[in-house]
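In this notebook, the sequence line spells out the residues, with the fold written below as integer tokens. This is how one looks.
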Amino acid sequence: MRIELNGANITGALHADAGARTLTGLVTGLRLGENELSVDAKGKGHGRADADITLTNYPIEGPIISGPHQFPFACTTSTFVPFPGSGVLGTPDSNCHAATRVQYVYRSTAGTFKSLPAGPLPTMIRS
């Protein structure tokens, strides 16, 4: 068996499943746009593939089913504050993406969100 992605042999990325006569694996290295995945059961790599499929790799911002992005759009990452005291999300790129950030918060007994302080975690109260 020979499996190719855009003409490159990726058979080694897959492993045989015991007794199931199937291969399982993760296909990586797809380029943006259309990619051709082909399977040749004879393993010779000559002639027409026994099976092939076109996979479309979309950019993280899409669109997948919604159609082209509309411009201009309102991008508020540089002014949006998720909760008081958290600061803004950050400076956006041309697609309105801000850098990933992790901030731990908790809900106080007063019902407001507060940043979790560095150090030991607060005692958890169970009701």
